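Retro notes, structure queue

What went well: the backlog is down to a handful. What didn't: a couple of records were mislabeled last round, so from now on we paste the full input next to the output in the thread. Example, using Citrate synthase from Desulfotignum phosphitoxidans DSM 13687:
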Amino acid sequence: MTEYAKLIIDGKEMQLPVITGSEGEKAIDIRQLRKETGCITFDPGYGNTGACKSAITYMDGEKGILRYRGIPIEQLAEKSTFVETAYLLIVGRLPTSEELTRTSVMLNDFSLVHENMKAFYQNYPPQAHPMGILAAMVNAMRSFYPELTDLDEEMNNTFLRLISKIRTMAAMSYKFSIGQRVTYPQPGLCYCANFLNMMFDNDVVPYHVDQDLVRALNVFWILHADHEQNCSTTAVRVVGSGRVNIYSAISAGISALWGPLHGGANQAVIQMLEKIHKDGMTIDQCIAKARDREDPFRLMGFGHRVYKTYDPRGKIMKKMCDIVLAKVKRDDPLLDIALRLEEAALEDSYFKDKHLYPNVDFYAGIVLRALGIPTNMFTVMFAIGRLPGWIAQWKEDMADPEMKISRPRQIYTGNTVNDYIPIDQRRYDNGTA
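Corresponding output:
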């Protein structure tokens, strides 16, 4: 039996169907609202608006639940790899042994970047941000590689090409920025090991692949692979709804992720730690300043817009953080500050009462720094991990017969009818024309 919500406006009653998701969440279907009443809803930031139906990721912020295709994130972080998780998100199920092997082989086969694309890297200003470069390079891929044509193919070559080459392009941008020779991918290394080797191997000091660090990177990317309808995923869906090529849609997602309120959060954690160290603040001073609402200082990496309890990804990333720090034994004052800050915040009643627990960005920033990833590459690392989710969401959107081009409405607050004034008659409050 269909459930309805009753809306009464101007004395007119309307029955709005209630849609129930597979986990029991409910949504009021307002698709006929404007047609029947002339009204629209007003929801800045779309925090209470469902823009699509999706079978990819389920999250419950109150209970701290995150699942990909129904599989708890805790199980994937413990048992899966990033490549296997990418397959799960895009195809909708875990791969067989043969499918996983074939996928890994094809990722290696697609890992090289077209030689003509190197000219783009060489002509970017040295100070150019890696995220800007990555967004432009992904968009440029449309000119070098064929566009997706067959959505029915489960793991299309276009998807594999994107996942493989984004890793290579990210490492290349780093190498060019520090003036080192580009290290090419090696067919004998797995996806994550190849990335670390391309980043840090050089002619003077060959890079030693450590499996604990490889595992940490796997977990980092698994935890970031998808997160429901966030800012960048929505950007991919909105741009994709215009039926643009997938490269342009993914480029839009990268650009959206670049913002400090989204993918730049893990970078903000390190910048906060740098400020604490530079200003010589004690941990007690940091906690006091964070509790003072009049003080502009904020503890980055604590709390989350969606999770009202401990971020489940944060718990997992903390374990990886402990493993990595024990392994690298890096003498770094920022890492020391981070660990002492975490301990103090977890014991402080103010943070506990407001559920301001360390989130995934806090621990991710520590892990990436310990791995040797430069701070301006942090958001790029996020983008590599989120790519399978973007692809899965784009693919789902393209296959949905109910989806239309995204076209939000607005509440107009400007002038009413306003006659044109000839230029010689225009005078404004400051006396200028």
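Agreed that this is the format going forward. Reviewer comment attached to the example: The CA atoms of residues 232 and 253 lie 5 Å apart.
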